[in-house]
Write a structure and sequence with these properties.
The structure holds two protein chains of two kinds. Chain A contains five helices and seven strands; from the N terminus they run αβββαβαβαββα. By secondary structure, chain A is α/β, with parallel strands linked by helices. Chain B contains six helices and two strands; from the N terminus they run H-H-E-E-H-H-H-H. Among the domains of chain B are: 67 residues, Orthogonal Bundle (Helicase, Ruva Protein, domain 3); 31 residues. In chain B, a hairpin with a 4-residue loop joins strand 1 and strand 2. Classes of the chains: A alpha/beta, B mainly alpha. Chains A and B meet through loops of A and helix 3 of B.
């Protein structure tokens, strides 16, 4: 094969490779039930430092993507906080991820609704992209091994938390 | 003479004044053309989402605080990451966004020029020596055939 042919083949392969890469990176299908939950590190919304889902390995975690500018997120916040107060402990926590939001607005939201669960900040939306969220809010129940067990698109309410989430969690000690 | 010089100075100041204020004072209208609405994936100028409204409020507060355009962009990057900038920064890996198209264009131009030269050398086009115009009329052979045909049908 001549040098010219090799160059031509390499050129075609490069173009095809770029097209495939472009399609693959655009067509992220997102996390589904049964998949491992992404756990990249993000800054904490308050208090400084980084945190990630991996820090909660061994616990059930309800990962909740939200933003202060999202009206349905405001609607679900009280139910999430009430659930956290009732179920928090060594085996469970809600983990909020404030996505593409101004940090000041996010902190004001946390204070306004008295949210006591940990909050991370997904400033540029990378974590939302990794999970494949299609909007806000979205929630994922992740088991102690890091596997997604439930996925809720849209706001969760008391009924969903009681019937769907709580039914998967270990029973509370009475 | 002094009056003319004064008038000239006043005109010069009047012409320079808007550009000076534009350079020093950031404006929401200008910044909206240069930053993105991260949720919408469009220029902030075109976005009407709740997130875009909050971004505008943030920019207006920065302007009220006397921040320059560059400082406001830095503050937006701190909030939303580099993706908030409509144009990538001209440093680090992002510089490739500016350099690669220029290099690609140069390579394409050189390749095209080399290709044309090679094609001309191979006789694909008129060479410098082939400047004579092609014959306008029919060839001698065609003329003879034409005459013969006309003679055959001559009544």
């Amino acid at each position: 094969m001549s040098v010219r042919s090799v160059i031509a083949v390499l050129g075609v392969l490069a173009v095809v490779g770029l097209l495939v890469f472009g399609l693959a990176s655009k067509g992220s299908s997102g996390v589904e039930v049964g998949d491992m939950a992404p756990s990249s590190a993000m800054p904490r919304l308050e208090g400084g430092g980084d945190g990630s889902l991996a820090s909660y390995r061994g616990k059930w975690v309800l990962v909740n993507f939200w933003a202060s500018w999202c009206p349905p997120c405001r609607a679900e916040a009280p139910a999430l906080e009430e659930f956290q107060r009732r179920r928090r402990g060594p085996g469970f926590t809600v983990l909020g991820i404030d996505s593409r939001d101004l940090s000041g607005d996010g902190r004001a939201f946390v204070r306004r609704y008295g949210l006591s669960y940990p909050q991370l900040r997904d400033a540029n939306g990378d974590a939302s992209h990794d999970y494949g969220t299609t909007g806000l809010p979205e929630s994922y129940l992740v088991d102690p091994r890091g596997v997604v067990r439930l996925h809720a698109v849209g706001p969760v309410d008391e009924e969903y938390l009681r019937d769907e989430v709580e039914s998967l969690l270990p029973k509370e000690k009475s | 003479m002094r009056a003319r010089l004064g008038l000239l100075a006043a005109l010069t100041l009047a012409l320079l004044a808007p550009s000076a204020s534009a350079a020093g004072q950031a404006s929401l209208t200008e910044l909206e053309k240069e930053v993105m609405c991260p949720v919408c994936g469009t220029l902030l100028q075109l976005a009407e989402s709740p997130q875009a409204q909050r971004e505008r409020v943030f920019i207006e507060r920065q302007i009220d605080a006397g921040k320059s355009e560059a400082e406001i962009k830095d503050a937006l990057v701190a909030e939303y990451g580099n993706e908030v900038l409509a144009l990538p920064p001209d440093s680090g890996f992002s510089l490739s966004a500016y350099v690669v198209p220029i290099v690609a264009l140069l390579i394409a131009a050189v390749a095209l020029a080399l290709g044309v030269l090679r094609w001309r050398r191979a006789g694909g086009g008129p060479s410098d020596g082939d400047t004579a115009a092609p014959p306008l009329g029919p060839s001698e052979q065609d003329s003879e055939r034409l005459d013969a045909d006309l003679a055959r049908y001559d009544l």
